[in-house]
UniProtKB/TrEMBL annotation, chain A:
It comes from Pelotalea chapellei. It comes from the Bacteria. This is ABC transporter permease. The keyword Cell membrane applies. The keyword Transmembrane applies.
TrEMBL record, chain B:
The lineage of its organism: Bacteria, Pseudomonadati, Thermodesulfobacteriota, Desulfuromonadia, Geobacterales. PROSITE patterns: ABC_TRANSPORTER_1 (PS00211), ABC_TRANSPORTER_2 (PS50893). Residues 15-244 form the ABC transporter domain. Keywords: ATP-binding, Nucleotide-binding, Transport. This is ABC transporter ATP-binding protein. SUPFAM superfamilies: P-loop containing nucleoside triphosphate hydrolases. It holds the Pfam family ABC_tran. One of its GO terms (molecular function) is ATP binding.
Length: 281, 266
């Protein structure tokens, strides 16, 4: 060894397990890269499910085989109606998300920068937050009818709270020391907000948008189950009414897919914005 | 020596502090952080302020920086009462306080506002070079070491070409070797910029190495105990007899009754 001195009893050697454990998994999965290990369980699950269905051990009407679900998806796609349902659901989520997020951003921005307004508004919002969101449903239906506006309003309510709460706490937790640097360079209030407070609160804001979007997807299901004639939620209810479990599961898969896709979009944008700071969301 | 104003010789004084007192309310009771401080600093002078923690030395610097304006007595910069921060007084804090979303170059340009003029960018680049970060202009703060981040922070304070640079224990968080290197850099910067420097520190060695005068502060209430001139040519040799003499004189101010460790005996 380079330094010439080598004690006879080497106490600091890696336990044999520590280095071996890395290879044990790859030994099991062959040449599968480590990051795909998580896919193993679902894949095995789906294959076992398919095999059990084919063997006739699962009732086809309750547990349709994965391939028959895929078949249902293809069927719906070919009929063209699926695009319609997906389109309307995504449109509702996007509209509700935009309305909820914009209102939350404005309100959190004002409350965050003006203590008086914060003291005035924040307790009320904290109180409203405790109302289970589903409790709004009858009221929105009564006020806005069964059409789009009540659904979008419900989604907007769901999106509003996480965005507001995260952004406000992000603004309030901006490092006082950074704000002081702003004072040293004689920034006025507006410059301070624009150049210091908002960039500093950006990570919290992105976390809020992300969980807001998650709630948006949750609420669109609720809104569409409640009463809709279009959308993925409607498709699920339709599947339930007509006893087609494959349609319900296909809808669940699509919800998962689009939920993940939109989440990924925010994550990507966020990480692009935050990468420079050496952090991510 | 106690509380006397040091007359300025030669050059005009840029900072005049007379009868400065700062009281804080802590849990309903009054605490005097600074009491009857008198100090004049000449243009271009390098002043070290040394004291134990809680002696009010940082409060004094914050008052000079204009970050603390609720003081009694007089604090004049260029003859005008200090009422708030000003671009003629650059501040370097103990932590680098760089903005994590800006590159080194953007951070250094921060104090210039909307940098548009060629002159401004020249000042930015010149100061980045001065602190030795030329190859790291595009780096983000998290990519820098502690010493490099502090250099960037010094460059930011200098980019506005302030008359005075206020340094609040700027090397307190750095390791011993980086610290010595940074002290040498600060001397180089001082010579290049000809700015007045006011350095707050708890490091006797640092205070003597850098200062034209060392202001010794006593604890609770913070008062100026003594001001010791350091009439040694620069660069100063930390191991020289004269240097150690000044050092032990300051040491004696803090630990009069206690035994001096043998390391400081000659």
């Amino acid at each position: 060894m380079g330094n010439g001195y080598q004690p006879e009893e080497t106490v600091l050697s890696l336990p044999p397990d520590a280095s071996a454990s890395r290879f044990r998994v790859s030994g099991l999965t062959g040449r599968l890269p480590r990051k795909w290990v998580g896919a193993l369980l679902p894949v095995v699950f789906v294959i076992v499910w398919e095999l059990l269905s084919r063997a006739g051990l699962l009732a086809a009407n309750w547990f349709p085989a994965p391939l028959s679900i895929a078949g249902t998806l293809v069927e719906l796609l070919q009929g063209g109606e699926l695009f319609h349902h997906i389109g309307i659901t995504v449109a509702r989520v996007v509209a509700g998300f935009l309305i909820g997020a914009v209102l939350a951003t404005l309100l959190a921005g004002i409350a965050g920068s003006t203590p008086l307004i914060r003291e005035l508004v924040d307790p009320t919002i904290q109180a409203l937050r405790n109302i289970p969101s589903m409790a709004w449903v009858p009221l929105f239906l009564l006020w806005l009818g069964i059409h789009e506006s009540s659904k979008i309003a419900l989604i907007a309510v769901g999106v509003f709270f996480p965005v507001y709460l995260n952004l406000l706490s992000g603004i309030l937790n901006v490092d006082r020391k950074l704000i002081e640097v702003g004072h040293v360079y004689r920034l006025n209030k507006l410059q301070l907000v624009r150049r210091v407070i908002l960039p500093a609160a950006l990570p919290a804001f992105l976390v809020g948008l992300r969980s807001g979007l998650g709630l948006g997807w949750m609420f669109v299901v609720a809104a569409e189950i409640m009463g809709a004639s279009k959308g993925l939620g409607f498709l699920m209810i339709d599947g339930q009414m007509t006893g087609r479990a494959s349609v319900i599961i296909a809808s669940i898969v699509l919800f998962a897919l689009f939920g993940k896709l939109t989440d990924l979009m925010i994550e990507r944008c966020g990480n692009r914005l935050l990468r420079q700071r050496g952090v991510g969301i | 020596m106690n509380g006397t104003s040091v007359s300025t010789t030669g050059k005009e004084s840029v900072l005049d502090i007379r009868g400065l007192t700062r009281r804080f309310q802590v849990n309903g009771s009054e605490v005097t952080a600074l009491q009857n401080i008198n100090l004049s600093v000449r243009q271009g002078e390098f002043i070290s302020v040394i004291g134990g923690s809680g002696c009010g030395k940082s409060t004094l610097l914050r008052i000079i920086a204009g970050l603390d304006t609720e003081y009694e007595g007089e604090a004049l910069f260029d003859g005008a009462r200090i009422k708030g921060p000003g671009l003629e007084r650059g501040v370097v804090f103990q932590e680098h306080r760089l903005f994590p979303w800006l590159t080194v170059r953007q951070n250094v340009a921060f104090g210039l506002g909307n940098v548009t003029s060629k002159d401004d960018w020249e000042s930015v680049d010149e100061h980045i070079e001065l602190v030795g970060l030329k190859d790291f202009e595009g780096a983000y703060p998290h990519q820098l070491s502690g010493g490099m981040a502090q250099r960037a922070s010094i460059a930011r304070a200098l980019a506005n070409r302030p008359e005075a640079l206020l340094l609040d224990e700027p090397f307190g968080a750095l390791d011993a070797l980086t610290k010595i290197q940074m002290q040498q850099e600060v001397l180089k910067i001082w010579e290049a910029e000809k700015a007045t420097m006011i350095l707050v520190t708890h490091d006797i060695d640092e205070a003597v190495f850098l200062g034209d005068r060392v202001v010794i502060m006593s604890n609770r209430p913070g008062t100026i105990k003594r001001i010791i001139p350091v009439d040694l040519p620069r660069p100063r040799d930390r191991g020289s007899y004269e240097f150690t003499q000044v050092r032990s004189a300051i040491y004696a101010e803090f630990f009069r009754q206690e035994e001096k460790p043998f390391a400081y005996e000659i």
